[in-house]
Structures are given as C-alpha cells and as structure tokens.
Amino acid sequence: MASLITCPHCGARPKEEFTVKSAALPRPSADAGEAVWFDHVYLRDNPRGAYEEYWHHTSGCRRWLVVSRNTATHEVADARDASEARP
Amino acid sequence: MRYSALSVFLNGLKGNKSWQPAWRDPQPKPHYDVIIVGGGGHGLATAYYLAKEFGSTNVAVLEKGYIGSGNVGRNTTIIRSNYLLPGNNPFYELSMKLWEGLEQDFNFNAMVSQRGVLNLFHSDAQRDAYTRRGNAMRLHGVDADLLDRSQVKAMLPFLDYDNSRFPIQGGLIQRRGGTVRHDAVAWGYARGADSRGVDIIQNCEVTGIRRENGRVTGVETSRGFIGCDRLALAAAGNSSRVAAMAEMRLPIESHVLQAFVSEAIKPFIDGVVTFGAGHFYVSQSDKGGLVFGGDIDGYNSYAQRGNLATVEHVVEAGKAMIPALSRLRVLRSWGGIMDMSMDGSPIIDRTHIDNLYLNAGWCYGGFKATPASGFCFAHLIAKGTPQQTASAFRLDRFARGYMLDEKGQGAQPNLH
After folding, report:
1. Which of B81, B87, B258, B353 is the right S-S partner for B392, CB 3.0 to 4.6 Å?
2. Where are the domains of chain A?
3. Is the CB of B264 inside 8 Å of chain A's CB atoms?
4. Is B399 within 8 Å of chain A by CB?
5. Which backbone phi and psi does B349 adopt, to 5 degrees?
6. What confidence score (pLDDT) does residue B51 get?
7. Which CATH number applies to B20-81+84-89+182-252+343-415?
C-alpha cells in the first residue's frame, strides 16, 4: 500500500488516517430484484490491477472518498470525494 | 525409493550420492484425464488422493512458479479443528485425523507436532463464547478443554495476566492441535503423487480455459495447449483471476496476510497461543524462532507484501500478551495472498460448467485444511458428488442464504 493518500480536502495524508470499506460499486435500486442484489452484495471482479474502493478519512475530514488504487503495485492514482464520484 | 531410518543409514555409508530427486520434471503430455490448476498444498494433496484413493493417475498439476513458492510455504504452520459450526467442524476434524496419519501415509517426515493450540479469553462474555465452542467441538467428538487462569498460568507463566485492559481469565485448549512443517507437506504430497504417476509441471502458467459446446476441453498455458477431460481449479489467492478465464465471478476478494519470524531463542513457548483481545497467534519453531501473525492488512491486494502499519499493530498485540517480546528482534516478515470469501468459509464445488471444479475461498485457514481439502476435492472430481464432511462448502450457498459465517461478520471479506 502506498503510504500516502491525497485527500481532495486535506491534501497528502498518511494512509493510516484512512479506513478502507470495500469495492466502490453502484448501488442497485431497492426494487432491482434478487439476482441484481445478490451480485451487488456477494460477487466481485477482484481484478489484479486498477481498482476503485470506498475509503473513509476517519482521522481527518471524515468524508467518504473513492480511491483509485492498483492491487498489484499498491499505487494510488486518484482520490475523489464520494459525493462527486458516484461510480 | 522408500524413505526409512535404514535408507538414511545406507545412503550415509555411500556418501549420500545415490539419492534420487523426490519427483520428476516431466514434459506436459498433450492430454490428461484431470488437470489441476495450482501446485500448492491443496492442488498437490488433490492429485495425491486422486491417485491413491480414487485410482486416477493420468493427472497433471500445473504450477506457475515452483512447488512450495505460494501460500503453502508462507503460512504459520498451525493445524487445529476447533470450529463451532456443524458445516465446518467435521471437515476440519477429518483434516486433523489425516494429519495424524499423514507421515506414515505418504512416507515423508512432515514434522507433525501436536503441541496444543490455546485460545486465551479475557472477559466473562468471551469465556461463555469459548465454552460454547468447546462444547460444540466435544459434541462432534473433538477434544477441547476449558482452562482457568491458574491452569494457563502453570503452562505459560510469562503472559501478561494483569494487563489493565485485557486481563487473561483462562483459555480453550485443543491438545491435538499443533504445527506441521509446511514445506514438507508440499514436498511429501508432490513426491507421493509423482510416484503414483501424476505429472507435476512447474513453471507452467495457465493463461486461458478452452471450451467447446459448454464443456472444458483443456487449458492454454505458457508451455502450450494441454487437453483434459476434467479441470480442477485450486489456485487460492488467484482464484478470481483463473475463474474469470471461464467467465465466472466469485464471492471472493484477494487480500494480503503477513507473517513474521523472530531470531531464534531457547525453548520458550511449547504450543500455539492466540490472543483473545486482538488477532495475534504465536508458536515456536524447532529452530527456535517465534513464528507469529495477525490480521490481514484490510485492503484488496495481489502483492505478496504488506504494510508497516500492520507490522506495528501485530507486534503491539503480541507485546500486550507477552511483554517479553519487546526484547526480541524480528528476523523476517513476508506476505501471502488470501482468497477472502464473503462468509469466511471455503468453496469445494462443481460449477456451471459440467467438467469444471472449484476449490477456493480458504481465507487464512487453508493450511490446516490441506489434507481434507485434497481428499474431498479428489472425491468430488472422481465421483461427482461432494464428500460428506465438505457438503456445506457449496458455491451457491450465498445465493440460497446458507452462509457458513463462523465469525458472524456478514459479506465483508476483510473482516473475516
């Protein structure tokens, strides 16, 4: 894991300030049906390479972010506020 | 050649010049009855039991690196069967029974050492939970004993019993648990499978799964196309990537787990001890180093290395349990990639493709399961039906709502 994540609000901060949630996936609508919800809750692409995740800036601005990260090299390419980066 | 004290003695007289390699280095044949993708512990054990128990010897194990280079050589070597849930416990107990007879069975010294696994508890609530787990184990015929504080103190006087936050109140011990030399497990299974005709093909990475009319016909590899009647995936860590070659998406994320070994010291800890107030477990190897580990780092990763923050966290938990650890130097740390499943339990099942079989999702409990995983996967491949003790490890349990969530964390892999 890269040691720094550049928060859009706070700038470059140590990654220990952040908490990872999980894959940043578009949330299905409430009436989307069982198959769509099963896919959303349980199945993952789990790629080796570029990946988007929700991280919480727990010890900083406490905003939810979408962090673009590489799962093989651990490089962080980008971090955006989750409200502006709906996948 | 059969290994024995006599063969060691006789070879010693001849200057140890007539030992043969423990397994061949064959060229891949154009076609096999069964191809197993992944030459880790589980893949090799599957090949071994296919050949030995189910009479299927036209088998190849394809390994992208070399035997023992993945998780089978990266774990902390602990074996135990102290599980709560009825879907898990009989399977891990089968594994324990196979461990107990393994060295005689495959004629290899795997240094199976039943030195006991002790889980410490630190509160009344935790004692109740451990009592329940111990009772569940005993109802399944597995040994379990609840120790009070004075009994633990007699065994391990150097623990921090009066830690102000996490005083030790006792522990749940499985005396048949212990450690096994992990490399020897890979080597023993490889040798046993090879001697029965299985081809172990190293440095052979699978790059594609060829299908015709909805059936697998073979695999594309870095050493050319190899045909097969049945294809078995045992590539934990990279299960999602291999399954994607057959357009499957799995309920799995890949995470990195770190492990550590200290400098060698005189005999200090004679069993395996786990901290109940944080994720920390430790044992002492026969060379004298303390082997220990903790939680996964928490983020998806395919890199076989972790983060310093987790190193600090693990060592802090260790020091809270054994203050004397602060005087010890860490010799090495390393990482392995875990198949973290959505309920913390594994998958041994058929797939939507008739002749494609899946063994995946072992989280960080794969090593102890190696013999039973191989046996049950071989059973499934040979007979087409699940072995009885592995019948809960279905791929479709997530869709049906039959999760095996030992820890009760829900569908968040990094919390299992």
Report:
1. B87
2. 4-84
3. no
4. yes
5. -160, 170
6. 98
7. 3.50.50.60
